[in-house]
């Protein structure tokens, strides 16, 4: 579906561009052959806006913010805080240089760890299983054995490493972090009285982007320190924004925000149902807004966050070594024997409303019983009522029955909030408490049901708003720190490449007035703007000393090494993600 939407979107854009070219002013002179074969990328142009389309890249450049930038630059020049702000961006230059080195170290370390993780998953022999006893109370601590080399980097691939439903939130988070990044370049440029050519947004296939463009001559002609401030300001803003998010999370400000907005925190005892996948068997039976507070025989109020308990219970796999078997139900022997055993035979197709049960004293005595009868016994006087471990816990002529060991049954006990009971009443199930029985792999519940911590006090409040904010906040934290390190990689098309070139030029130049070499890419090109005219002039080649060639070779070697390491990390990350599916 997503591919179809993208194909239609880009098809309409290219159709409009072709229509616009045909409707253009006619020319009676012979047109050059090159103009007949090359399509103009322009989609729309006005005094302050220019929209272009080229190679599945849609770009919108705006010059309407130039006056605001000029005004801000004038205020900064007159401000008494200018010296302090300049010092802060000088610190940002140092942080940027350290971040560039750190990004290379991170790439090397990540490549090694990803390679070891891939080896463990592909060739390593799993360790033999050692039987162990686990008490029911210790269930959250039970975990599957993990690889000795955990991958330090996980590629964010919607539908593979992250849910496809998170794609809109992911794209908005990515665009937000880029806008903050470009704002840093714009503020630092205003501090140095560098005029702004344009700001803009871009879209490449599906990925959004943001950019600011400066006249290349103005940026390249600056002394080294101001140039370093402008180049490193974007990553510096990303780092400051990440620190602000960390402080916000550490201070738990959201815990004070949501109660004011009308939400109650249930994170200590339950999970709020936010959404259910439409393809899930639970869809239509598990109401949005219900609070799940019990999974099977285990409650979620264990003194720690219910989210951890919820995930542990659904991912736990009981082993034969566990000495504490699940509880059964006391059932009248005659009532149990009256049921048939058709669903217990391997050749019989599964029956959704029945499961195979057997007494603890005679496992071969199997019968098919509706699991709901064990949980809603009021409708049948002979139905099981009491829980038991063995027949000793039951009365005369009763059996202690439990699901057969291969039957995957899980009961979910829900609390229905008062504002939701009116809607549930229409289905005839308007009680404050409900119990659902899930037949199948419990991990599917984690995949098909989205749950949260905050319960709205009224039906007027959106149930999914706190979870949406939490997802957005989490992606912001991840992407803004990732963008900080990624942009500081010493590659020619990133800030790190420009930072390395500026440091190299400062180091190799005999005087502060020396400019970048012709091999340098203007910052406006770096930010991805579509340029024409003299906005993208490449500086004149300066005279270099006898050691310049060696230093240039070193700079080129760093570029190549960074590119190779990045490619290795991407390939290894994709391989690990494929094996983790």
Automatic annotation (TrEMBL):
Q: Which residues form the signal peptide?
A: 1-15
Q: What is its main location?
A: membrane
Q: Name one GO cellular component term.
A: membrane
Location(s) in or outside the cell:
Endomembrane system
Which GO molecular-function terms appear in the entry?
metalloendopeptidase activity
* Keyword Transferase belongs to the record: no
One Pfam family name is: Peptidase_M50
**Which InterPro entries did the record assign?**
MBTPS2, Peptidase_M50
Identify the residues that the record assigns to the Peptidase M50 domain, covering every copy: 170-510
**TM ranges:** 87-112, 187-210, 230-251, 465-486, 557-579
Q: Which UniProt keywords apply?
A: Membrane, Signal, Transmembrane, Transmembrane helix
> What is its membrane topology?
Multi-pass membrane protein
Question: What is an annotated GO biological process for this record, any one?
Answer: membrane protein intracellular domain proteolysis
* Name the record gives this protein: Endopeptidase S2P
């Amino acid at each position: 579906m997503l591919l179809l939407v993208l194909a239609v979107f880009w098809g309409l854009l290219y159709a409009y561009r072709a229509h616009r070219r045909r409707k253009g002013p006619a020319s009676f002179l012979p047109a050059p052959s090159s103009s007949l074969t090359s399509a103009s990328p322009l989609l729309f142009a006005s005094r302050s806006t220019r929209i272009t389309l080229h190679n599945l890249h849609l770009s919108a450049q705006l010059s309407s913010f130039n006056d605001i930038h000029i005004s801000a630059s004038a205020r900064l020049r007159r401000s008494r805080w200018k010296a302090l702000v300049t010092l802060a961006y000088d610190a940002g230059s140092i942080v940027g240089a350290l971040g560039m080195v750190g990004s290379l170290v991170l790439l090397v370390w990540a490549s090694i760890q990803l390679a070891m993780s891939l080896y463990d998953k592909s060739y390593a022999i799993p360790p033999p299983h050692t039987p162990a006893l686990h008490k029911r109370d210790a269930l959250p601590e039970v975990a599957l054995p993990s690889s000795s080399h955990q991958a330090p980097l996980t590629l964010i691939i919607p539908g593979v490493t992250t849910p496809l439903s998170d794609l809109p939130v992911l794209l908005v988070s990515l665009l937000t972090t880029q806008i903050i990044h470009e704002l840093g370049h714009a503020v630092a440029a205003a501090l140095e009285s560098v005029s702004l050519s344009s700001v803009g947004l871009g879209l490449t296939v599906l990925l959004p982007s943001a950019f600011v463009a400066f006249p290349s001559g103005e940026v390249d002609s600056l002394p080294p320190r101001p140039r370093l401030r402008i180049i490193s300001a974007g990553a510096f803003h990303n780092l400051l924004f990440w620190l602000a998010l960390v402080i916000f999370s550490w201070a738990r400000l959201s815990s004070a925000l949501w109660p004011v907005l009308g939400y109650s925190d249930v994170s200590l005892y339950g999970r709020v149902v936010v959404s259910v996948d439409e393809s899930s068997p639970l869809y239509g039976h598990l109401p949005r807004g219900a609070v799940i507070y019990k999974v099977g025989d285990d409650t979620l109020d264990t003194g720690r966050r219910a989210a951890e308990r919820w995930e542990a219970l659904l991912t736990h796999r009981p082993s034969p070594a566990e000495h504490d078997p699940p509880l059964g139900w006391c059932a009248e022997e005659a009532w149990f024997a009256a049921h048939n055993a058709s669903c217990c035979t391997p050749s019989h197709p599964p029956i959704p409303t029945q499961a195979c049960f057997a007494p603890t004293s005679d496992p071969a005595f199997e019968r098919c019983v509706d699991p709901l009868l064990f949980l809603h016994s009021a409708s049948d006087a002979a139905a099981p009522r009491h829980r038991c471990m063995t027949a000793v816990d039951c009365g005369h002529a009763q059996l202690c029955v439990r699901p057969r060991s291969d039957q995957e049954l899980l009961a979910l006990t829900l609390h229905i909030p008062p504002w939701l009971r009116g809607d549930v009443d229409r289905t005839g199930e308007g009680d404050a408490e409900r119990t659902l029985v899930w037949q199948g792999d419990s991990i599917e519940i984690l995949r098909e049901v989205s749950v949260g911590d905050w319960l709205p006090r009224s039906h007027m409040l959106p149930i999914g708003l706190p979870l949406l904010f939490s997802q957005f906040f989490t992606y912001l934290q991840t992407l803004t720190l990732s963008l900080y390190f990624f942009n500081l990689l010493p590659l020619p098309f990133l800030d790190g490449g420009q930072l390395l070139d500026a440091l190299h030029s400062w180091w190799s130049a005999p005087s502060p007035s020396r400019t970048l070499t012709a091999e340098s890419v203007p910052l406006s090109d770096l930010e991805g703007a579509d340029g024409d005219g003299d906005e993208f002039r490449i500086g004149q080649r300066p005279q270099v000393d006898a050691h310049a060639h060696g230093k240039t070779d070193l700079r080129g070697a760093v570029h190549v090494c960074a590119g190779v390491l990045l490619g290795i990390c991407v390939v290894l990350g994709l391989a690990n993600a494929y094996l983790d599916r």
